[in-house]
């Protein structure tokens, strides 16, 4: 029987309380699917800064290295906002984790469950029947890590650099994803201005030849920022570099109006990956038992699929979430009059029961 | 009496027909305000590619140099899309114009006239009472023009570089704009990842000390892309570098739902500037007499204010547009049942008459 080791990094804010619910749902998966998970917790983010003086302690990295996947909560909060930007919990934990573990492929679904169309800031007619877009973002290259990067007198600079091989492997992730979806990839670039993006367009076009069943469109990033707002359902898979993907995945997430619902996966070559909610640590509601645990629970579901190959178990969790929504249960962030308002714990329990 | 010279670059697609209406409104301004404008036309964009083999012929640059301002239409279309991205009409005309004339400050208002709230893709409650945001974008620096930029083997790269003085002068434009508006500046950066953006944040913070009456907030670009969708009215002046400003100004423009209404100004030090609609050349409707000329007309209005100091004449045009909208007249792009649908020519005539 399958026996997987999971590094559990709950982090700050609502991280610990929503993580508890994700672990509860994983326990239900163990029972139903006859698998076992060994979970080990470690400090990360602000909690780690407080306890170890760094957002990503060596012990935490070691634990991740011994594990088959990382289930990540969320990090950051007002307590650490006085620190220089590069030492803050988010930056200080996420960037080194991505680089250390080669997590080059970030998958961020922007899903509007049909039950939650009203939560979107968009007019309802633009989302009729829901929305299902995934942003595939390159996560270990581009201007985030390019060198040289620094200061010289009164100037400061960063380098946006892409190697053909980096573009190729992230493009393949996007085309593979499109194959199991609606077979459309929109590749984002700024080839009219940036040399690196001319190469991006070239390589993506080459990779597309191996996927004749998938339709490829190229779109400038500024136009994409418009089109997402104008007609989000025109997209299936959005493929983008690190910086453009950062911006567009957040824009797409907000279009759903329910950040508390959105999971994400950051994948290495092979089966290792880090899974985390798209939203933040929400310090304002932390500890009150009202946070929506669904993003964390669906992040665990993505882990089952992408790192452990348990596609059925993943689907079972998504179905369980939909079933609980169908019954009218909502946490505060997605509730409206007439819904049954429940807390973090009850939402987790109900989903676990359905699994 | 004032006598100004205007280089008129109508360009492609709907450019010529909406430009005709802007010139008509300028003629009305001449009459009412006792000023004279000398207008000279020159080729630009696709039309220039066809006639001179380049999107920005020397003659056109020379004319602009002898003029007090450039009134620009729009460029581009399917006919020239087979060209390499860097030779295409938009890229080939706009970037050299910006650099040659030092047009470092791009002002792009995202205005929702209260009469047109329904055109927005956002829920009406998010725009109650309209929207009035302006994006102040740095236009001659950053990753657009930074060097080195090129290819080396299987790699391609661009450089994002900012000099303290470039940040300072664009920040001053933003703070000055805020002073005559709602006294809030949101400065966009990615200081948690980019060294150039750490400098950006530093310099903007310094400049803010000279404007104690203006409230400054710093916001990461990914968060800004979200906040624009979530609650656009939280913004007054958005200050951003070239690339981030490109993306966010387009996103903000689309939130209004009426691109055909939005003007823009690109200013040099001193009084020279280029004025153009925010939307594109709309080749699909070109030549049909149905295009909305308001963006072009309001671009001329911005020229009167920023290059000629004719604030009253600028205001007269904005008022004329509002009056015509109040009477229920609409071009197709902003019409809905019950409105009086009119064409490009009639819209221009009615606005000119009100002036
Ligand atoms: C915290 C920050 C460094 C990070 C990024 O920009 O990648 C975050 O915005 C994200 O998208 O995960
Ligand atoms: C055409 C292109 C080079 C240009 C830009 O990126 O600046 C355009 O998108 C704009 O915003 O004016």
From TrEMBL, chains A, B:
Its EC number is 1.1.1.85. It catalyses: (2R,3S)-3-isopropylmalate + NAD(+) = 4-methyl-2-oxopentanoate + CO2 + NADH. It is found in: Cytoplasm. Residues 5-351 form the Isopropylmalate dehydrogenase-like domain. Keywords: Amino-acid biosynthesis, Branched-chain amino acid biosynthesis, Cytoplasm, Leucine biosynthesis, Magnesium, Manganese, Metal-binding, NAD, Oxidoreductase. NAD(+) binds at residues 77-90, 280-292. The record marks 144, 190 as: Important for catalysis. Binds 1 Mg(2+) or Mn(2+) ion per subunit. Pathway: Amino-acid biosynthesis; L-leucine biosynthesis; L-leucine from 3-methyl-2-oxobutanoate: step 3/4. Substrate binds at residues 98, 108, 137, 222. This is 3-isopropylmalate dehydrogenase. It comes from Alkalispirochaeta americana. The lineage of its organism: Bacteria, Pseudomonadati, Spirochaetota, Spirochaetia, Spirochaetales.
């Amino acid at each position: 029987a399958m026996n997987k080791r999971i590094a559990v990094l709950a982090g700050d804010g609502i991280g610990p309380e929503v993580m508890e619910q994700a672990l509860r749902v994983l326990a239900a998966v163990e029972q139903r699917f006859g698998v076992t998970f060994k979970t080990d917790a470690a400090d990360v983010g602000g909690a780690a800064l407080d306890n170890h003086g760094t957002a990503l302690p060596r012990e935490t990295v070691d634990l991740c290295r011994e594990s088959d996947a990382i289930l990540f909560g969320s990090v950051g909060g007002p307590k650490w906002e006085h620190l220089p930007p590069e030492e803050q919990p988010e930056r200080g934990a996420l960037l080194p984790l991505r680089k250390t573990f080669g997590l080059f492929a970030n998958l961020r679904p922007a899903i509007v469950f049909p039950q939650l169309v009203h939560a979107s800031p968009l007019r309802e007619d633009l989302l009729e029947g829901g929305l299902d877009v995934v942003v595939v973002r390159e996560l270990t290259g581009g201007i985030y890590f390019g060198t040289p990067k620094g200061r010289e007198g009164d100037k400061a600079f960063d380098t946006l650099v892409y190697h053909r091989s980096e573009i190729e492997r992230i493009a393949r992730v996007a085309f593979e994803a499109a194959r199991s979806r609606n077979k459309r990839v929109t590749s984002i670039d700024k080839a009219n201005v940036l040399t690196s993006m001319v190469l991006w367009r070239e390589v993506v076009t080459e990779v597309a030849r191996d996927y004749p069943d998938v339709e490829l469109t190229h779109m400038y990033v500024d136009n994409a920022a418009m089109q997402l707002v104008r007609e989000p359902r025109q997209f299936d898979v959005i493929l983008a570099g690190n910086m453009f993907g950062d911006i567009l995945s957040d824009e797409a997430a907000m279009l759903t109006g329910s950040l508390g619902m959105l999971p994400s996966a950051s994948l290495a070559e092979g089966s290792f990956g880090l899974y985390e909610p798209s939203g933040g640590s929400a310090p304002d509601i932390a500890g009150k038992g009202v946070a929506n645990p669904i993003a964390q629970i669906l992040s665990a579901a993505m882990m089952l699929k992408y790192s452990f190959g348990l596609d059925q178990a993943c689907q079972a969790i998504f179905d369980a979430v939909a079933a609980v929504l169908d019954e009218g249960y909502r946490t505060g962030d997605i509730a409206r009059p007439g819904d049954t308002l429940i807390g973090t714990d009850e939402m987790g329990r109900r989903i676990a029961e359905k699994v």
